[in-house]
Amino acid sequence: METASERVDGLSFHTKKPWILSSLHSGEILLWDYRAKSLIRTFDEHYGPVRGLDFHKSKPWFVSGGDDKKIKVWNYETSWCFITLFGHLNNVRTVQFHHEYPWIVSASDDQTIRIWDWKSETCISVLKGHNHEVMCASFHLKDDLVLSASLDQTVRVWDIGALRKKIVSPADDLLVKYVLEGHDSGVNWASFHPTLPLIVSGADDRQVKLWRMNETKACEVVTLRGHMDNVSSVQFHAKRDIIVSVSEDKSIRVWHAGKRTEIQTFQLNHDRFRILAVHPGMNLLAAGHDSGMIVFKLERERPAFSLSGGDSLFYVKDSFLRHYQFSSQEDSQVIPIRGFGTASLNQSPRTLSYSPKEYAVLISSDLYGGFYELYIIPKDRIRKYFVRRKRDIGRSAVFIAKDKFAVLEKSTNRVLVKDIQDKLFKTITLPIRTDAIFYAGTGNLLCISEDTVFVFDLQNKAMLGELRTPFVRYVVWSNDMESVALLSKHAIIIASKQLVHQCTLEETISVKSGAWYDNSVFIYTTLNHIKYGFPNGDSGIIKTLDVPIYITKVAGNTIFCLDREGKNRVITIDATEYILKLSLLGENYDHVMSMIRNSELSGMAAIDYLKQNGLSEVALQFVEDERIRLSLALDITEDEELWEFGIIDIEGLSADEAERDFDDQELATQAAERDFDDALRRRSIQELATQAAERDFDDALRRRSMQELATQAAERDFDDQELATQAAERDSDDALRRRRDFDDALWRILRRSGLLREEE
């Protein structure tokens, strides 16, 4: 996988998922699926470059550190930063979770290493001693040690056992156990070996140094020279005895840790490498550079293998030719294979071809410009290690007859036909520039070029077929040699033996392997799925994979395969779907009915598949439900007379059958009459309901009129009450006037009569 982005300063592999984190100089953090080659999500809360990244081993978290002096802990499932740690006074260079305790170690340009407790969100220790920027710090996988590298030209190993025992307060300093001095410039990176007491470091002096520790001291073992500029990062490989380093000289270099020599160099044209990450459990590495990152493997994972007789598999693993028997599942070692890669970097062979008649094996490799080896294996078990072995130059080699094989001489574009004694029989020039050759039947070759494949008849020197394709990496023939699957990186092309194109199955991720089932279905694997494909283009998913596998044979619901480690595995799958489709395509309807009766699949699954593929007429052959039959017939035609489609076969009826059909028709007529009576009754009920609704409506109108009259009466009563009130008020005023008039008259009478004096 290769990505394009701004400069990548930090990388971290997830231990279980096919994910990798990359942090950019712009401050963004990107989560990638390296299998699907797709961006999952982006995290953006840091200000400035982010240089440190690490996934937690068991929780859905990762930690990051950047030039904003902050350390952040994220939940990648929710994209939430739920912890931010403050304390560093300058740029944070690296961060790492402890494998067991709730700790994070960080290195900073403030010349310190800090250990944090993410539970309490506090700094529990500050490691002081470097007098220049600290470029990286990491925990040991097993021991209570921390390793740091600094631009003060030293590598330091710190003992943190006291911290684990909780006898050190945050104010106390932890002790330096070793100080490794030897680099002539600032040290950019240092790493522990995953299992051995070794340390590797890389520095601005362009050197990679290997160090060994014991209980009392650490000393330099060797200096590896070859880089032409600053060494940015260096790591031990997780599985092999090798060291990998990246540099600002735009190269990745692979070193033999035991022999202490350079094995391989990979070069970029324009970009300087900044950071390196090694997957802890797989043969995967990632390197960040000025304009993105690359995820790559150092070794070929697909084992070279060849089937023989349907029950035997020959394959290469760990520099040995091995034999596996499918029926008994017995695996045995046959002979040692030499000359493929080194003891530490095993470049497995690309192809293997087997001749059962001569008990001979041809193994081809891409190393050293391409070569092949011929092994004649003694059938006498007592002398099985006395192997006849011949080696010669050739891009690929393959048996074309029981005692003849062909070798591609790529430089001249010729095929050399040789006998079993490796003697040249004849030479033939191919009509098209060819990169690889494969078996295509006795005396024939399937030749692969950059954008074309063709079948070539060696006897008549003639092309038997030609097909334009993407570059083909592997070829898989059906057992009857009538069909061929051509595997390119992201597609499978299925063709006839004359290379007449039948279909192309496109994939978005890498195609890994495949095998034919019953000469008609191609079962293949991608990075994360087992799938099937038919020559008509129909395809589907059988099973999801956690890790890639390489199919060697398919038998019913059993898949035999080799894994990444070259171990034989047996996987049980649900083959119902493609076996059903195969039976339908072969018009084996008895088998389909048997599958339905045995509850191997829903009957409707078969019917739906047939309908979707325009095979409703076929479905009528085994469907008994009359409603489904009518539906299928209507799919075929709108003609009311459906006799010809199998609903009722008039011509094939006996007298009794005709009588039964007549009775069925009478019953159908009676049923129709009952349906008509039911419809009349429903109509009467509907009319009565309508009349009731009309009466309800009239009643509602009457109630509405009565409510309006009552409202008007209430309004009149209210007016009468107001008038009565006014009249009462007038009567009260009149009564008051009359009382005053009476009182006045009384006073006048009393004064005239002398009963009251004037002063009273």
TrEMBL record:
InterPro entries assigned to the protein according to its UniProt record, in alphabetical order: Beta-prop_COPA/B_2nd (IPR006692), Coatomer_alpha_WD-assoc_reg (IPR047312), Coatomer_complex_subunit (IPR050844), Haem_d1_sf (IPR011048), WD40/YVTN_repeat-like_dom_sf (IPR015943), WD40_PAC1 (IPR020472), WD40_repeat_CS (IPR019775), WD40_repeat_dom_sf (IPR036322)
Extent of the WD repeats: 43-78, 85-126, 127-160, 180-221, 224-265
Record Gene3D superfamilies: YVTN repeat-like/Quinoprotein amine dehydrogenase
Region of interest (Disordered), residue spans: 712-735
GO MF: structural molecule activity
Keyword Membrane: yes
SUPFAM superfamilies: C-terminal (heme d1) domain of cytochrome cd1-nitrite reductase, WD40 repeat-like
UniProt keyword terms in alphabetical order: Cytoplasmic vesicle, ER-Golgi transport, Golgi apparatus, Membrane, Protein transport, Repeat, Transport, WD repeat
Pfam families cross-referenced by the UniProt entry: B-prop_COPA_B_2nd, WD40
GO aspect biological process, one term: retrograde vesicle-mediated transport, Golgi to endoplasmic reticulum
Domain COPA/B second beta-propeller: 320-563
GO cellular component, one term: COPI vesicle coat
Record function comment: The coatomer is a cytosolic protein complex that binds to dilysine motifs and reversibly associates with Golgi non-clathrin-coated vesicles, which further mediate biosynthetic protein transport from the ER, via the Golgi up to the trans Golgi network. Coatomer complex is required for budding from Golgi membranes, and is essential for the retrograde Golgi-to-ER transport of dilysine-tagged proteins.
Self-association and partners: Oligomeric complex that consists of at least the alpha, beta, beta', gamma, delta, epsilon and zeta subunits.
This protein's name: Beta'-coat protein
